[in-house]
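dumping this here so i dont lose it
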């Protein structure tokens, strides 16, 4: 696989590659809305072991792409992807999101081209 393929990786289920500001913001807003709707529906249903399993699987499909987008954005702006560990703390996660949304990509980097 060429390095160019790694940089232009657009899969939301991959931590490799980079992501531009717009898709990063849009993806995380969409995932937040889907997560909120998913949570509201899950709370309105009676508790059940099957429901708990469905909620767990749904949470994985919401949280993992979000974390991967944070890793890609950290790489794009030139900071260590280890900063994603800060997302464990809710307020710090929001601050990191705003920071990554505002920051521009590293100087000399070409914008990511989505094909």
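and the seq i came up w/
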């Amino acid at each position: 696989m060429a390095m160019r393929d790694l940089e232009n990786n657009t899969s939301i289920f991959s931590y490799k590659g980079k992501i531009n500001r717009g898709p990063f913001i849009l993806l995380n807003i969409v995932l937040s809305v889907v997560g909120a709707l998913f949570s509201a529906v899950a709370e309105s249903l009676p508790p059940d072991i099957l429901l708990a399993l469905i909620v767990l699987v749904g949470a994985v499909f919401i949280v993992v792409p979000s974390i991967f987008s944070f890793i890609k954005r950290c790489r794009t702006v030139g900071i260590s992807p280890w900063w994603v560990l800060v997302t464990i703390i809710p307020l710090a996660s929001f601050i990191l999101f705003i920071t990554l949304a505002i920051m521009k990509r590293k100087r000399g980097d070409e914008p990511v081209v989505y094909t």
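The first helix runs from residue 3 to 7.
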